[in-house]
Amino acid sequence: MPSKQEEETAMMAEWFDFAVKKKKLRKLAEQAIRDKRAHLSGKAHIPHMRRSDAHRLAKEGYKRGYHHILQNGGV
């Protein structure tokens, strides 16, 4: 049976892991939202691209981004 201190250390490590993952998840989500906004306003990353193409790409990237985040537990 683990001592009280070992239990606390394990708990702290778990919380730290969780906080790091949450922060990464938030950063990725914010980046995805920023990308989405840029694409919706027609400011495609590729200057010669038509607005509709940029919009379609943004939508796909946005979906893929969140899918990736959820699949990999926020890392």
Write structural notes for this entry.
- The protein has 75 residues and is an all-alpha fold.
- The chain has one domain.
- It is built from two helices and no strands.
- Helix 1 packs antiparallel against helix 2.
- It is rod-shaped, with a radius of gyration of 19 Å.
- The two termini are 32 Å apart.
- The mean pLDDT is 67.
Provide a concise account of the structure shown.
The chain has two helices and no strands. It is mainly α and 75 residues long.
Write the layout of secondary structure elements.
Blueprint: H1 4-40, H2 51-71
Output the keywords:
mainly alpha
Distance between the termini: 32 Å
User: What's the gyration radius in Å?
Assistant: 19 Å
Unreliable segments of 5+ consecutive residues:
none
What proportion of the residues is helical, as a percent range?
over 70%
> Helix/strand-derived class?
mainly alpha
What profile does the largest beta sheet have? Answer: none
The residue-averaged pLDDT reads 67
Number of H/I helices = 2
The H-and-E topology, N to C, reads as HH
Q: Categorize the overall geometry.
A: rod-shaped
Instruction: Give the strand content.
Output: under 5%
> How many domains would you count in the coordinates?
1
The count of β-strands is 0
